[in-house]
Amino acid sequence: MASLTEYKKKRKFDKTPEPGPTKKHTRTRRLYVIQKHRATALHYDFRLEVDGVLKSWAVPKGPSLDPKVKRLAMQVEDHPVDYAKFEGVIPEGEYGGGTVMVWDYGTYKPEETDDVEASLRKGELKFTLDGEKLKGSWVLVRTRGGRQWLLIKHRDYYTTEEDVTELAPVSILTRRSLAEIAEDEGGDIKKAATGDPKKIPRRTGVKRRKKGAKAKVWHSNRAS
Ligand code: MN
Prior knowledge:
Number of helices: 5
Largest sheet: 8 strands, antiparallel, barrel
Number of strands: 9
Bound molecules: manganese (II) ion
Helix content: 10-25%
Order of helices and strands: HEEEEEEHEEEHHH
Distance between the termini: 38 Å
Strand content: 25-35%
Shape: globular
Strand order of the largest sheet: 1-2-3-4-9-8-7-6
């Protein structure tokens, strides 16, 4: 059963701004979120709401929209649903110390099943994402008995070889880079900027994109 015991055990809630371990669910019960997290190393925390908690995987390289690319996804402890909108700084020395960004946000639909827990127990879950940056069909497959999974894009309308982490590096909620979040929330700006795919200029109210690149390219159809 979904449990937040491990989440609670790892954190001191008088030290971290992260939300407490309350179990609840969203209206759709199918929330999807990716949080970009500069802790010891930069990674992308991929989360799906299942039975009142967020099932979570740390994806070191982030998602790829190329079906040929299999991304390692290490399963980590379940997180509270409230965690999905957490963007800010976890103090250094605390568990996961560093800067957290809400990189993508939306909902998902399981494919070929209504019992997501059962699919996860079996080690394979197919699902359709409806986020702002990521859409279309995906699969999570467990590779061995343990916490190691692969996150793979299925070939469809949203397939592309372009790197969505490079094209869309900033927060979906606030359009801030990791460095800007660190600056606003009293974190380590230099550390937050290290390893971030792009250096973002000071916020201008305009979405930054690479010279010559089309806007919203991650929504458009590419060589599929
Ligand atoms: Mn993390």
